[in-house]
What we know:
With 228 residues, the protein is mostly beta strands. The chain is 4% helix and 50% strand. It contains 1 helix and 13 strands. It has one helix at 135-142, and strands at 13-14, 18-21, 25-28, 31-32, 36-45, 62-76, 80-94, 99-106, 109-114, 122-133, 161-174, 180-190, 206-216. Strands 4, 5, 6, 7, 8, 9, 10, 11, 12 and 13 form a 10-stranded antiparallel sheet that branches. Strands 1-2-3 form a 3-stranded antiparallel sheet, with no helix packed on it. The N and C termini lie far apart (42 Å). Residues 224-228 have low confidence and may be disordered.
Amino acid sequence: IRPRFLPAPYIVYRGQVLKSDDQQGTRLHMLDHQHFSADMSFGGSFPAEGNHARQGMPDLDWTFEIGPRLLYYFAKDERKTVRLGLPLRAAFTTDFNTTRHIGYTLAPTFQVDWYDLPIPDLSLYFISTATFLTRGQAGYFYDVDARYATPERPTYHAREGYLGYDLSLAFKFSSTTSRFLLVGGTRYADYGGSVNVSGPLHRKSNEWIYFAAIGFMLFESEAREIIY
């Protein structure tokens, strides 16, 4: 088990174009329709340091992703949202001194949100995602150059395509009468069908991830935007 900690700002803002809340995150609304909408999608990963499989190779830096997302809503009301998301994100790696573009990620996502169930202020989320990488991003994670090859880790040229899928189940408790927010859940990731499953850096075909977050509202403005 390897714990990770990441402090991050938490902002609730509901403007006509820019929106940020605890239900759908931060997004730019570029299209709004009864069944369709478009916004911005974000992603990223922690750095990989001291990885035994990469011994003698450069460590993996932080990565972040950003790009447009098209959403189709099967159902959307005050108690439930069922939607399919099609995000296409540009991926970058950074050590906070330099930033480099490494490719693109396509991550179709099916998500169901239940609000105020089974008790007020408690929401439940189910998320299923399949991930596909372009050659540049696949190479960043799975390539083995000849200079880093060993008898146990031969030279390998990663392929673009399917990376794997993951299933997440999460809850959120956010009281409307307090400044407290609690989030927790679990995520199962399966990489057994990856196009790079035969690569020497592919060491695990599945993993469980558990996460929790606590948030506090430090201040709020007097001006309120109409929620729509």
